[in-house]
Amino acid sequence: MRRFRAEEDRSAGQDSFLDVVTNIVGILIILVMVIGARVRQVVLEPAEPEVTPEIAALAEEVESLGQTLVSTEREIESLQGQVRTLEAAAAGAADARLQLATAVAAAKVAIAERKSAADEAALAAAERGARRRSLEEQMQRCSLEAKGLAHAAATTQEVLAYPTPIGRTVNGEEIHFRLAGGRVAYVPLDELFDLAKAHTRRNSDSISQLASRIVTVGPEQGFALDYVIEAKVDAARGQVLVRSREWVVRPADATVGEPVAEALGPHSRFRRVLSGVKPETTVTLWCYPDSFDAYRQVRAELHRLGVPTAGRPLPDGAPIGGSTEGSKSVVQ
After folding, report:
1. In angstroms, what CA-CA distances link 118 with 103, 219, 322, 323?
2. For the segment 99-121, what is each residue's pLDDT rounded down to a tens digit?
3. What tens digit of pLDDT does each residue of 224-233 get?
């Protein structure tokens, strides 16, 4: 019986201790809640920092930099807008430049065509004017001659009659005379060609350099020779053929030669040259428009001597010349 009671007393003491602990925990919880509520109601106000002159200056500088940054950003946005505007203007200018270049090119072509047409028209007009003046001069000259013939007394004139000419190409020996300004000059073509051959032999090692280049020899007896060398390779024979493709004879002096009256005299150079020719040698007369009278006199003398004669009329300013594609003289 005593033991049972002791156990009951111990149980009751333990329950009382647990109750006390529970109550203390509850009180602590309540205190924590009250303190938390009070802490939430506390307004934490930061302590005002101490403002020094350096901090104030830095604050002002920061504020100024902030304003500068804002201003700079606005300027950048403005510049970007201007850049976009300039890019659009440049694209438009490039298109306009292309269109302008196309228009200018078309205008140049049109101007060139008009200029060519105008030049042709002016040339045709000048030719017509020259032809008209020439016809007018001929008409005036014929009119004056007609009037002179109408009032002139009848005269007897000797007319030289030559046999009916039969032309043949000259293939044998040929000597040449130049008739210009009423003067007769011997053209030493054979002598000049001999000089050209000697010059080519001396420069045979550089034929490739001489080819298609103008070479000059002379003067010889008042004339110089300009010629162009042409070199061809004969593969079948293994030879190199060298010849003059084109040649031109130039007088060293415009007054070269002797007057026709002196040339037809007994002791003239013209007579000395003719004295050494063979009967079958042909005399070729290169005659300019100002010496047709001299040509007729010289031709009449050659006909009297029985020397075959060939005529080569030349326009004013044209040189005596020949080429591999030229024609030979025709003797009558």
Report:
1. 22, 46, 37, 37
2. 888 888 888 888 888 888 888 88
3. 888 877 766 5
Measured from the Cβ of residue 308, the count of other Cβ atoms closer than 10 Å reads: 20
Same domain, 181 and 99: no
Residue 325 lies in a domain: yes
Tell me what pLDDT residue 164 has.
Answer: 43
The owner of tokens 């005529």 is 311
pLDDT at residue 260 tops 60 = yes
In a domain, 14, yes or no: no
Consecutive H or E run containing 321: strand 320-323
Same domain membership, residue 183 and residue 279: yes
Domain of residue 120: give its range: 59-149
Q: The tokens of 210 are what?
A: 């001489």
Of the candidates 196, 184, 314, the residue with the CA atom closest to the CA atom of residue 256: 184
CA separation, residue 136 to residues 26, 132, 144 (Å): 151, 6, 12
Is the CB of residue 224 less than 8 Å from the CB of residue 216?
Answer: yes
Same domain as 137, residue 175: no
pLDDT, tens digit, 9 for 90 and up, residues 270-329: 888 888 888 788 889 899 988 888 899 889 888 888 888 888 888 888 888 887 665 555
Beta-sheet pairing, 174-180 with 282-287: parallel
Instruction: Give yes or no: residues 105 and 141 share one domain.
Output: yes
d(CA 244, CA 107): 49
| Cα–Cα distance for residue pair 226/192, rounded to 1 Å | 10
Q: Is the pTM of this model over 0.85?
A: no
